[in-house]
Structures are given as C-alpha cells and as structure tokens.
Amino acid sequence: MRDASFVFLAGIGNSEPEHWQRLWYEDLSRNDRALWVEHADWNRVSRGHWVTELDSAIDRVGSERQLIVVAHSLGCLLAAEWMDENPEANVLGALFVAPPDLKSPAAPTEVFGFRDPLKVGPLGHHGVVVASEDDPYATLDYARQVAAKWGAKIVEVGKRGHINVASGLGRWPEGRQLLTDLLSSAP
Q1: How far apart are CA 146 and CA 59, in angstroms?
Q2: From residue 139, how far is each of 42, 69, 84, 98, 130 by CA, in Å?
Q3: Contact residues for 83 (Cβ-Cβ < 8 A; gap 6+)
Q4: C-alpha count within 13 angstroms, C-beta hemisphere, residue 163
Q5: Could you give phi then psi for residue 13, rounded to 5 degrees?
Q6: pLDDT tens digits along 50-85
C-alpha cells in the first residue's frame, strides 16, 4: 500500500479487540502507519468533542502526510463531517463501513450534534461505502443514498448485520481487499 497514514475511526462504544477494525489497526500499526483516534467519552457522543479529538489526532500526524480513513458506524459520520469541513485535507481515500441512520428507531439516543449525512458532501475524496442488507442501524437504500451524496462508490456485502464482531467476520479479508482496491484505484 502507498506510504500514507491510516486513520481509524470507531463508532459508539469503541471497537472491541476482536473487531476487524482493531485487527487491521494492529497489523498496520506495526509499521507506524496507523492512528487510532481515541475519544474521552465513547458512549455519550458529542459531535463537537469527537471532531476536536479527530483534529488533534490529525495534527499529530502532520498535514503533509496522506491519510486513508477507515471508519466504522458512527466513525463514518465523524469522518464525513470532518472531511466536509476540511476539503483541503490530504485524504487519499476513505472506507466507510456501515454508516448508521441516526433517524432510525434503532439509533443510539446518546449521540448529539451530528448533521444529517444526506446533507453532508459531496466529500471530494475517493471513497467507498460498505453496506449490509440486514444492518439494524441503516437500510440498504439509506446506505445507497449516503454513498451517492458523499460521491462514494457503494459496495453491498449481503447479510452481514452491522459488519462488526457480532457478524463473525474475524479479520474480514473481503473488507481488507476492498481497502486494497480503494487504494489501488485512488488518483
């Protein structure tokens, strides 16, 4: 993969040690190529705080380094908001896995301040939205609309739930291939 920093953005509650996102981070951090963005509060989510924490993490990487965003769930909405507000950011590409619909009845009520993802974008960066047919937090139609609005390609992976630990994906090699494909097709 290109010489770039991978920025990992987890969703509410953070990603468990067995989550594909954590496993990928562990693989990539061995070469000092990965950054896991930590939040002071993973369960009561304030958009303002999360964006500030992402800004601080990106500042530590440096603006000259290309970024590859690997986001899951609410991390997708954080990435989209940040990228929309920072169009000059040196983002090579973004993998948005299972972006949630905050208007869904299943959406966590502990999330504050995020804009409607259908009102964010287009993002102007090379991106892929990965969606599951049976995600409890977003319909496939919603994911298609988000991808279109953000200017990203949509990849539908069948019935994989929320594409998380409960989905039984392990290291999720198919997803890792999507990341590789994203990077190889980036401008």
Answers
A1: 28
A2: 24, 23, 23, 10, 12
A3: 69, 89, 91, 94, 123, 124, 125
A4: 32
A5: 85, -10
A6: 999 999 999 887 767 899 999 999 999 999 999 999
Please say if the pLDDT value at position 150 is more than 50. yes
Domains and CATH numbers, the chain: 5-184 (3.40.50.1820)
Rounded (10°) CA dihedral 147, 22, 69, 60: 150
Cα 122 to Cα 144: distance, rounded to the nearest angstrom: 14
- Write the pLDDT tens digit of every residue in 21-58: 999 999 998 877 899 999 999 999 999 999 999 999 99
Mean pLDDT for all residues in the chain: 93
Report helix, strand or coil for 155.
strand
Residue 75: partners with Cβ closer than 8 Å, 6 or more residues away: 8, 9, 10, 11, 37
The per-type count for the chain, helices as H runs and strands as E runs, is 5, 8
Tokens of 95: 């993998």
Residue count of the chain? 187
Q: Which residue has the tokens 């995600």?
A: 135
Instruction: Tell me the C-alpha distance between 134 and 12, whole Å.
Output: 19
